[in-house]
Amino acid sequence: MIKTLARSIREFKKPAIQTPLLVTVEVILECIIPFIIANLINQMQAGCEMSVIVNYGIVLVVMAVLSLIFGVAAGNTCATASTGFARNLRQDMFYHIQDYSFENIDKFSVSSLVTRMTTDVVNVQMSFMMIIRVAIRGPLMLIFSFVMGFVMGGRLAMIFLVTIPLLGIGLALVIRAAMPIFRRVFRKYDALNDSVQENVQAMRVVKSYVREDYEKKKFAAAAEDVCRDFTKAERIMALNSPMMQICVYAGMAFVLSFGSYLVISSQGTEVAVGQMSAILTYSFQILMSLMSLSMVFVMIAMSMESAERIVEVLSEQSNLTSPENAITEVKDGSIDFDNVSFKYSKKAERNALSDVDLHIKSGEVIGILGGTGSSKSTLVQLIPRLYDVTEGCVKVGGIDVRKYDLEVLRNNVAVVLQKNVLFSGTIKDNLRWGNPDATDEDMLEACKLAQADEFIQQFPKELFNEDLYRIAAEKYPLVLQFMPDEFKTRETCDVALKNTRSYDETDVNVLRFVPYADVIYKNIDLLGDRYSPVKILECIPENVLDDKIIEWGLSRNGNCLTCIPEDKRTDTMIEMAFRTSGLEPLRACGCLESKPEYIIAALTDQRSSFIHLPEELVTAEHCLL
After folding, report:
1. pLDDT confidence of 74, banded at 50, 70, 90?
2. Dihedral of the CA atoms 315, 318, 319, 322 (nearest 10)?
3. Residues contacting 217, CB < 8 A, separation 6+
4. How far is residue 294 from each of residues 297, 299, 479, measured CA to CA in Å?
5. Three-state DSSP state, 228
6. 340 has which bridge partners?
7. Is residue 108 a contact partner of residue 313, using CB atoms and an 8 Å limit?
8. Are 105 and 345 in contact (CB under 8 A)?
9. How remote is the C-alpha of 559 from its chain's centroid?
10. Contact yes or no for 351/110 (Cβ under 8 A)
11. Residue among 363, 158, 169, 349 nearest 271 (CA)
12. Dist. CA 93–CA 114, nearest whole Å
């Protein structure tokens, strides 16, 4: 499993190796600092000169700065390595899935594959990040602090021999209890995603049969199941903190009480004050390193199941491959089914097709009739070898389809599947799936053959990107967010703004993607009937916000002043905001201090304005008014 995942590190091996090295130096510096501080305290207790203190101070500052630099560098290389690893892992999974046959996809299910490429990859990424940084830092900090504790504290360090095993045993028990729950949760994610996928894909059926309440209950049950398990796991993991606190404060109590006794009884000859302070610091470092290790173990426990699920995807081999010395030419279009039987799973008890003998000559038109579920689509899917037959053989051009090169066979067998999908992009992009080099004439001819030309020619121009986007903007204004700049014309933006819906507050966000101030101003009164002026101005980008739009907003609500960048804010705008809404917008923008005349004007006109004055700006004159 580890070898399979490690192949996805590739070009990020360098930062993955640099991170542990940088962390090691950081830990060494952090463990030396308490030792230096202890010596400084002992020197001060002995009555050293100021120059000695200064020298120690300089050393400590340099070491602290170096530790910070190495820590930041380790964080940077760790982030680079982990995110790069996750990117490569998703890419490898996606590329591998492209080679899957229908049977492979049926084995995993779409919802499971989506979970594995998203949630599971994130879990593995977080685990990898902790392994190359925290999992290195924790043991090193534990070992160095333990050794330095005995060097500095002698008998006082014996407390570590008690607290470390106790905390270690406690953490092991917690992790042992939590791991099975985390493993169970990730399997339930598939059911949750499956519920969402089914509901979205079958939305028309759900609404037609008025089954919304049932679907809500089904999703709520799946979500509640995940929530219940996660809550149980988190409750167990929450025991980490009190265990650590008990060990920390027990260690502190022992060091302070027994250490103080040794300091006083030995007059500092056996244990000095500096040594006791160092022991306290090392005890914190040891216990914190154990706590960080527990986090690593928990993350690894969570990601182990995710890693296994990812490796399952990467290890799965397509059962439909081109044979060696594959045939690369299809002689004609004849199709023969010779005693064909087929079932979707080897474990299935019944065949979907049994003993089919069918012979179709090249050029013949054949219609296959049957009820729903009578395997008509299954029969057709065997021709381009989307599935392999269980018994018998299917021939195209007189040759068994299993002897053809898959790409050649499928290029020569055109199939329109029962369930069609339009991919994101334009009509042209979708038509060019069959031939990337197709001209407009080729595509129009294909549309005529498919009887789709009448629909497409309803657009004013040829297979048209701009008009397609404009129609989309009319129904879904926020499509502007994903629209290429070259198709984001004034006309399209105007259509989108006119079709925002007052009952959908998110629609006002379309203003963030309109680059034309004149188009916004043209529709601004219409938008003002649907949304608040402040919300409108908040959504307009700074580079599009012009004086006309600002004046419109301030004339309706002075609080629009808060939406205007400070470098665009003029005295005229401030005055307009004051006239519309009084002192409140000026106070919100911090303008009152530089505009005391507005305070006087407001108090003269309306005494209740006094409550909007910040306390630091109130003067005797204001109180008199």
Report:
1. very high
2. -130
3. none
4. 5, 9, 46
5. helix
6. 356
7. yes
8. no
9. 35
10. no
11. 158
12. 10
Most distant CA pair in the chain: distance in Å? 109
Q: Residue 226 pLDDT > 70, yes or no?
A: yes
Residue bearing tokens 């505009």: 595
The neighbouring-strand residues paired with 396 are 335, 399
Tell me which residue of 490, 486, 480, 488 sits closest to 518, measured CA to CA. 490
Residues written for the chain: 625
Say how far apart CA 414 and CA 455 lie, in whole Å: 22
Half-sphere CA count of 48, side-chain side, radius 13 A:
14
CA pair distance 34, 41, nearest whole angstrom = 10
Q: What percent helix, strand, coil does the chain show, rounded to 5?
A: 70, 5, 25
216 token code pair: 């809500």
How buried is 297 (Cβ within 10 angstroms: 0-12 exposed, 13-18 middle, 19+ buried)? Answer: buried
Query: Does 491 or 157 have the greater pLDDT score?
Result: 491
Phi/psi of residue 397, nearest 5 degrees: 65, 25
Containing 352, the helix (H) or strand (E) segment is none
Q: Is the pLDDT of residue 363 over 60?
A: yes
For residues 451 and 551, the model is more confident at 551
On the 0-12 / 13-18 / 19+ scale of CB atoms within 10 A, 349 is exposed
For the record, the structure tokens of 396 come out as 């195209």
pLDDT score of 337 = 92
Token pair listed for 583:
């002192």
Confidence check: pLDDT of 572 > 90: no
Residue type, 104: N
Q: In what order do the strands lie in the sheet with 335-342?
A: 353-360, 335-342, 391-396, 399-400
pLDDT at res. 395: 92
Query: CA 160, CA 251: separation in Å to the nearest integer?
Result: 8
pLDDT of residue 608: 47
**Using N-to-C axis directions, what is the helix angle for 13-45 and 50-98, rounded to 10°?**
160
pLDDT at 344 over 50: yes
**Rounded-to-integer distance, Cα 500 and Cα 506, Å:** 9
From 558, 556, 593, 589, select the one nearest 573 (Cα to Cα).
558
Q: Which of 342, 383, 378 is nearest to 360 (CA)?
A: 383
- Contacts of residue 59, Cβ cutoff 8 Å, sequence gap at least 6: 36
CA–CA distances in Å: residue 251 to residues 36, 88, 142, 245, 424? 22, 45, 15, 10, 62
Contact 105, 319 (CB under 8 A): no
Question: Which amino acid belongs to residue 579?
Answer: R
Question: Helix or strand or coil: residue 391?
Answer: strand
Q: Which two tokens stand for residue 531?
A: 């949304």
Are 370 and 418 spatial neighbours (Cβ–Cβ below 8 Å)?
no
